[in-house]
Design goal:
The protein is globular, with a radius of gyration of 20 Å. It has helices at about 1-15, 20-25, 100-110; strands spanning about 30-40, 55-60, 70, 80-85, 95-100, 110-120. The protein has three helices and six strands. A hairpin with a 6-residue loop joins strand 3 (about 70) and strand 4 (about 80-85). The N and C termini lie far apart (about 55 Å). By secondary structure, the chain is α/β, with parallel strands linked by helices.
Amino acid sequence: MASKQILTTICLATALAFPAAARGRHHQVRSRTFVATAFATEGTTSSGVQAQRGVVAADTRVLPMGTIIRVRNAGPYSGTYTVADTGAKILGMHIDIFMPSRWRAKLFGKKLVQVTVLQRPGPQS
C-alpha cells in the first residue's frame, strides 16, 4: 500500500514539475494553409526594416509583427521568414513574400502554402 502511495506521489510530482509540452502531450506544431503571393517593392516595411529576403507581409491579426514562420510548398521560396510588413490586400490567411525582382514575383503568382509558426513575438515593453 505504501509503495502505491509513493508511486502515485512521484507520478503526480512529475506531472506538475514538467509542462505538458515537455512531456510531449499537446505539443504538436500545427501548420495551416495560407494563400501566398509575392511582392518586390523596395523600401521600408511597416515595421521599419528594409524590404529584403526573409520578409513577409501578413495580416497582423493572424500573424503578429515579428512572428517567425516556416513556409513550405513555395518551391525555391520555401523557408523561414519574419513577419515585418502589412498590406491593404493582405487579409486573413494570406502572406506576401518578398522577392528580389518584379519578374520573380510575377512568376511566383499565387500558391497555397503551409505556414508553421516557429516563434511568436514577445510582449511589448
